[in-house]
Amino acid sequence: MKVVYMDLNRCIYCRSCEVACEREHDGHSHMSVVLLDEGHSVPMNCRHCEKSPCAAVCPTHALNRTDGRVLIEKMKCIGCRLCAMACPFGILELDSLNRVMRKCDFCSSTHRVQEGKSPACVATCPARALIYDEFEAIMKRVKESAAKAVVSGVGHQPGVVISPPEKRSTG
Q: Domain limits at 139?
């Protein structure tokens, strides 16, 4: 299963991923980049958690885990926002025009997946802070780079793996 790896040490807060997502999803970005301090920023998108609290609380079963992705069936979504309240990362947003929830779908709703391409955010990242690869290959890369810790979504095999930022000396 392919996942997105986020190397927070490489993110330069250019927000290209946001623009790429917006371009792929008809003017709606399903992610944002949050600036933590002068040297650190975090791309924020759905973590596609293995044990998806958002899907567990959905009264219409509009959220389902399929092929390692948590996807929304928009025709089933009633816009009740329970999924947004259950999301540990606060990622899901209401599309106020269509009254349905929105979130990252790894570009599976666009032509990219059918063509075997990486999600738009990954393909666009100039700093290579986002990588799309098999979970095992990413974990091997993390171990080889002597990462101190891996912070991920809920469960053992999330859809997004994050390498925490290193402490930088000031002065």
A: 2-163
Is 168 inside a domain boundary?
Answer: no
In a domain, 31, yes or no: yes
- Residue 91 placed within a domain: yes
**What distance lies between CA 52 and its chain's CA centroid?**
13
Number of domains within the chain? 1
Rounded to whole angstroms, the Cα distance separating 49 from 16 reads: 24
d(CA 12, CA 165): 12
Give pLDDT tens digits for 13-22: 999 999 999 9
d(CA 85, CA 90): 7
What is the pTM assigned to this prediction? 0.78
Q: Does some domain include residue 70?
A: yes
**CATH number where 106 lies:** 3.30.70.20
Where do runs of H (alpha helix) occur along the chain?
A: 16-24, 53-57, 82-86, 111-114, 120-124, 135-144
Convert the pLDDT of each residue in 43-97 to its tens digit.
999 999 989 999 999 999 999 998 888 999 999 999 999 999 999 999 999 999 9
Q: How confident is the model at residue 171 (pLDDT cuts 50, 70, 90)?
A: low
